[in-house]
Every structure is written in C-alpha cells, then in structure tokens.
Design goal:
With 244 residues, the chain is α/β, with parallel strands linked by helices. 37% of the residues lie in helices and 18% in strands. Strands 1-2-4-3-5-6-7-8 form an 8-stranded mixed sheet, sandwiched between helices.
Length: 244
C-alpha cells in the first residue's frame, strides 16, 4: 500500500498522512531513542514508513521527558486521536514503548475504550532495571549505553516507585489489554523486558505476537513491515471496541 505521504504540524505533534482525501485509521506513535530522550522529529522516518505501508495517519506525539507528565501528554494525544471517530492503534519504541503500555493500563483501569491494538518496539518496560539481559547483552548491544541507562532512567522516573505499573508496565496486571505485537533483537539489553511482558500478557489472555530478530540491523529492516501487517489486521474501518 505504498504511496505518497505528507507531514502536517498539529497541536500534539507532527502527523504523517497518506496523500489521499479520507483516512479513517490513526496510529499514535511514541518515540524513544537509546538515551531515553530525543524529539518527535526522530520518529518521522519510521512514521513515514508506517503511513506508506498501512495507509493510516501516524501522529508523532510530543511528551515531556519526566514521569508522570509524559504519560499525561500521551493520554491527551490519545484522546485527540480518538475524537476523530475511527480506529486508533498505539505504537512505541524504547521509552515510547513504556508509555504505550502504560497508556493501555491506564485506559483499562479507567474503563475507557482501548486502542485497537498496540505495537511495542524494544520497549523499556521495567524501570527496576533488574533484567539479566541488561548485563548479558551489554557488550553486544551498540544501540544503548547500558552504563548510563540507570542514571537516565532515574532522571525520568524521579521519586516515583520503580514498580508503579504505569511507569513499569511489566509489574502491572495485564488482563484485558488489546492485541499486542512486540519486537526485540536477541542481542539487545532490553530483550528480557519484551520476553517477560509477552509471556505475562499471554498468560493473562492477551493476543500476543512476539518477534525476536537476530540483531538490531535485522530488526530495523524487518519490523516496520511486520508492524504494518499487524496494524492493518486489527484496525479495519470504523471504531474498534474490546470487551472485558
């Protein structure tokens, strides 16, 4: 479904839209770079690929670099997307993956309609930073500085308990979440976050699609196509609601 796209600036961040009149589906894209920082501009290349591959609009949401303000900003962007009336999915990478999963938990706990589905790419889902892969893959992962990660995580989390599920979704109750696709590289330090979350979600009755790639380069080449297939499968025309 490749085609031309255009970027429009909006109140919650830049939006990539297919160059056609009507677009019923929206992807809320939450950026995240290896430094737990970055800007929405960093997300635009991936957002363009997703928009071309799916035919959906992709909103790259701005958020403040602190918790819980970041989740509040993402929640506001979600409400903006949902007000359009079409199906909405959420995707997030690294810190954006934490925010995407935290948004799912917050919406479920509030009894609000969930996204149609979610895609988490190399997500940071446990701010206790106790996963074995943080040490075992530190030498192999050139995308994340494992030594500086604790300091950056502390700056983002502030005084919040590291096991707060909205900050560290791996510590939450995962029942009742929409379908989730997770992507991770076998050599990355955040591998265990994705593996553990996929296992717990599946045990909670969530539809899970886990993709583990040989390394970051293989993931980078292949995850967008797999994500686009997943988004198209779960985001048909019209508003999506999930029971339970």
């Amino acid at each position: 479904m490749a085609g031309e796209v255009r970027v429009e600036e909006g109140p919650f961040g830049p939006e990539v839209r297919p160059d056609r009149a009507a677009v019923e589906q929206t992807v809320l894209y939450l950026h995240g770079d290896p430094r737990l920082a970055g800007t929405v501009q960093d997300a635009l290349p991936t957002a363009r690929e997703l928009a071309r591959a799916t035919g959906f609009a992709v909103l790259c949401a701005r958020y403040r670099p602190r918790f819980p303000q970041a989740l509040d900003d993402v929640y506001a962007a979600w409400e903006h997307c949902r007000a359009r009336g079409g199906a909405v999915a959420v995707t997030g990478k690294r810190l954006g993956g934490a925010l995407a999963a935290g948004l799912l938990l917050r919406l479920r706990d509030e009894g609000a309609p969930p996204p149609a589905c979610a895609v988490l790419v190399s997500p940071l889902l446990d701010f206790t930073l106790e996963a074995p892969s943080l040490l075992l893959n530190a030498a192999a992962d050139r995308t994340v500085d494992a030594e500086s990660l604790p300091l950056r995580a502390a700056a983002y989390a502030g005084p919040e308990s590291r096991s707060n599920p909205l900050l560290s979704p791996l510590h939450g109750n995962l029942h009742g979440l929409p379908p989730i696709q997770l992507h991770a590289a076998g050599t990355e330090v955040l591998l265990d976050d994705a593996l553990s979350f996929a296992t717990r979600a599946a045990h909670s009755g969530v539809a899970v699609d886990l993709r583990v790639y040989e390394d970051a380069s293989a993931q980078g080449m292949r995850h967008v196509g797999a994500a686009a297939d997943f988004l198209r499968a779960w985001c048909p025309n019209g508003l999506i609601t999930h029971a339970g």
